[in-house]
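Notes from the 1:1 (GR / supervisor)

We went over the backlog. Supervisor wanted to see one worked example end to end before approving the batch request, so GR pasted a single chain during the call. The sequence is below; no edits were made to it. Supervisor asked that the structure be written out right there so they could see what the output format looks like.
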Amino acid sequence: MAPTPSSAPPPPSPPPPSVVPEFEPLRTGGWRRHRLCAAMRRRRRAVAISLAVAATAMVVSAPRAEPQPPERTSRETAAGPAAELVAAPVRIADPATVRLLKPGDRVDVLASAPDGSAADRARIVARCARVAKVPESGGTGGSAGEGALVVLPVPRPTAAQLAGAAAHSRLTVAQCG
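Structure output shown during the call:
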């Protein structure tokens, strides 16, 4: 049997009205973005500081080269702007002096009288010539009294002056600063 409408229970009554308090609207996600940006800034700073420390360590630990005089090329020589360089073998009177030299050194070649007279002063024949080669003393074919060879790339006019000075003078070298 079907229930009649008068015997049905009454519908539930609505809850009593309540007051909702006022509050600021919630903004979600903004604090996360701020934290992420701050973390990225800290990481970038840490990477930058690490790179700076590494670069400083490399500079400090790098070997220091002695200052060299500026290199002269075949186009820029003391003899002129376009002088051709030739390899000039020069016999230096003192073989011990030549043993102190190595390729790349810069030397002045000086000529003095062979008898060592005080009236004849030494004169500079070649200025700041780069040493190209220092041949072994055993391969020169000369005795220790004849000196030792050194090969200098110099302009052609300077090579002629060196040959002329070697014929009449004792040659020695002095390293350029």
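Supervisor's comment: Helices lie at 30-61, 95-99, 156-168.
Batch request approved.
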